[in-house]
Every structure is written in C-alpha cells, then in structure tokens.
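User: Hi! I'm working on a homework problem where we have to compare a predicted structure to a textbook description. Could you give me the structure for the chain below?
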Amino acid sequence: MKMEIIKRLTEYLSKRQEEARQLERDYQRAYQRCFEGTPEQVALRLGAWDYVHRTTRPSIERRCF
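Assistant: Happy to help. Predicted structure tokens:
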C-alpha cells in the first residue's frame, strides 16, 4: 500500500515538473518571437508583452506587503 502511494506521488510530481518545464519553454519562445519582424512590429509586440507580464505576474511590492 505504501509503495503504491509513493509510486503515484512520484508519477504525479514528475508530471507536474514536466508541465512546468514545458510552460517555461513556451514562455521563452513567446518572448523570443517578440523580437522578430520590423521595428514597428517589435515595438508593438513588446508593448503587448509588457502589458500581459504586468497583469499576470505579481509585482515585488504586492508580494512583499
């Protein structure tokens, strides 16, 4: 019984770690794509990226206080 629980827990943690790694890779690729294209396209994409980043990532002030 204990071994089965440990096995399931290990599988669950491995799956979550792989999902986190995949999300990080996707995030990096999306950021790199911001720099492709004309200067106007880059400026537009980086502006959108900054907006999304600000609204989806907690700021240092919000985390500390």
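For your comparison, note the following. The chain has three helices and no strands. The chain has a mean pLDDT of 87. Good luck with the assignment!
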